[in-house]
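Comment on both lines for my students:
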Amino acid sequence: MTDTLRTRSSQGGHPRRRKSDLVGGSSAETSPVAPLVEIAIPVYNEEVALEPSIRRLRSYLDDSFPFTAGIVIVDNASTDGTWDIATRLCTELAGVNAMHLDQKGRGRAIRTAWTASTSEIVAYMDVDLSTDLDGLLPLVGSLLSGHSQVAIGSRIAPGARVLRGGKREFISRTYNLILRGTLHCKFSDAQCGFKAMRRDAVDQLLPLVEDQAWFFDTELLIQAERSGLRIHEVSVDWIDDPDSRVHIVSTAREDLKGVWRLSHQWPDDEAEPLGSSTKNAAVFADHGELARYTGVGIASTIAYLVIFFLLRGQLGIFGANLVAAAATSFATTAAHVLFTFGARRTGQLPRTLAIGAISFAAGIGLTTATLAVDYLIGSTSVTAEAIAILVGMLAAAIVRFVLLREWAYREYARASRSLPPRPQGDAAPHASSQAA
């Protein structure tokens, strides 16, 4: 299903630039040149925050930003008064446009706005303006200078100043660790809502990005790295929005699905990482295996802690620990078999089940022991319980890795040291494009 797209332009704003390449050589209607920078603001049911944020941003661009800049509000399927407010702002503020989509998805909104824009630099911000606007000039400056093709705000890079709750801080840092462990990315913060790109990079990357929702940011940056584009990071000041529309559990689930999908794609221009010698290839293979194991382990640990703390009040710490261990041990083992070692032979099922059982026994034994220490000394701290679980799970993870690598799948471990050649031509999978 395609979106029904409705647009509204401001009076006296920055219209699209002229088109002069009509078939037959006839001249088109002329209009002033588009702004150098156009900022998309994706919104969904933001009738409270929209007007003050747009007025604040427009005032900043007019008073403090040295380049011509336009704003486009992208309403993706709001059910409240967001679209009415957006259209009214277009009539009241020069340099503000709006478009409405009938389908949800932050990635869809950004893709649509960037595709329609003719500005040399396109950017997007979250409507809450959590990121301090003084970061905008260094964000686009690296693109205008030709230094980089992509620029992102980072809440994790040195020099960033961030104010947010411990839960969201933990989730954000854990997610970025998963990306580094599984996809070997070099950027520090995938999902800060403060990004900009050059027009040529947009044209190159958007056809490679499949996701239309929250994983759009991550996939865009991964494809940029795989395409050899330079990503510039700006350390930002960032204050958490307590009225965020992000649903953490469903978003985390979809993000992990996206990570899994990208981990199985061949980069189009992938090169030999460490040379062609067998020794260097073995080092790279071992490093990749350990990185994948770490990524799966981090995801498993997050699931374990979520289950534990959701059930802790009803079942007590030991009952919740038992359920969490049972729910994650076999799933984690299966993920390691398929993802870490790339082994899919059904003949190994008995060993896999045995290792899952041993991992469950080791996990429940070690975590119960560490929790029992907390219990005996009278500690009821959530932090102490989380640390106790992490210590037990780390020990169990070591046991699982040794069993999987040296017993069940040692032939795969040996084979990985030779790095079989990458498929060529039509045999190599590619990312499929998806229209907005």
